[in-house]
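REQUEST FORM: STRUCTURE PREDICTION
Request ID: SP-0412
Submitted by: Lab K.M.
Chain count: 1
Length (residues): 412
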Amino acid sequence: MTDYYDALETRDPEIREHALLVQLSAHVAHAKAHAPAYSALLADVDPRDIVSRQAFAQLPVTRKGDLVERQKAAPPFGGYAAVGWGAAVRVFASPGPIYEPEGRTQDYWRLARALFAAGFRAGALIHNGFAYHLTPAGAFVDSAAQALGCTVFPGGTGQTEAQVHAMAHLRPDGYVGTPSLLKILLDKADEMGVRADSIRRAVMSGEAFPAPLRAACAARGIDALQVYATADLGNIAYETSAREGLVIDEGVLVEIVRPGTGQPVPTGEVGEVVVTPLFNTAYPLIRFATGDLSAILPGASPCGRTNARLRGWLGRADQTTKVKGMFVHPSHVAQVLARHAGLGRARLVVDNPDGLDRMTLEIEHPGGGSAETEPIVASLREITRLRGEVRFVPPGSLPNDGKVIEDRRKVD
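STATUS: Completed
RESULT:
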């Protein structure tokens, strides 16, 4: 059995980085020329100047909220797509609603690489547990299976007994879908006294895959791995046999940024996952913020793949909270820090001693408590329109968990 999907997975990291940067400039040029939203957003940007990650980090971040609002104003895709009807194979709907086009390239969402890493090969039968209705997850698997030469049973969600009978009759080699659905199907098979023991590998996505479910799969002889994908971006990163983080897909450029900003954080620091799918000419998103928290793991995977790895899903980046009836956003913290030089990481702690909301901005600073706080207190009040305190803490003392706003209020 071949270990790698292609030679890209084992490239020298410097060669990969050079190739990504070359493709990045071309991607920005294509988006600016063919996607009206980016024509406007990047009006003053020369794609030829995007020759480094530092230069790329100056471009604006695109968020799901931007897609929703622009699609309302300029249907169907808000100007972010470079194709229209006919050029797109299908169009899907995700919560929001957000509408996503499917281009005509093979394995459009690049999931084949993840399935290959999980052991799927040509001639295998895959039980697809993702829905084919409205959202694109079912099509993710279908297109990837076709690229690998696999056959798919389109199980989708629901009709549990019918799916169990199909498993018993068709004897699929593996399963792709949510871990909870696989558990439901296998438990139902046990209850019905039906054999559904042919599945020996699985790829899980769409929800958390906790240790108890991993153990339950292993107890049944199922080798289960995860893939991190979204409807907008396709495959972002995937687990391999090493089970040490998720290897970033070869078709995307991933940044980890401080929540509420577009500023990349150092390797190992938790932040928001921002993704640019470099080979998607139909839907050429640029610096798309997933809203998920993760971090880059140091070093390379023991499996031999040389791309960077994500630690996995570590929570949500949107930590917006309401204090005294006013919304406070992570971007507010970033704005405060931007006004004052020499400050490190910060966290806005919200608590309610004596039942009254209180804000304290904790800031890492080498000077400790000797630095002046009054100007920062004034900025905090001006930006949030709320009174707050500032407390300096030693560098490295704030937890590395991606939190910019921590709500410690007690609810009786």
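NOTES: The chain has two domains: 7-310, 321-407.
Reviewed by: T.R.
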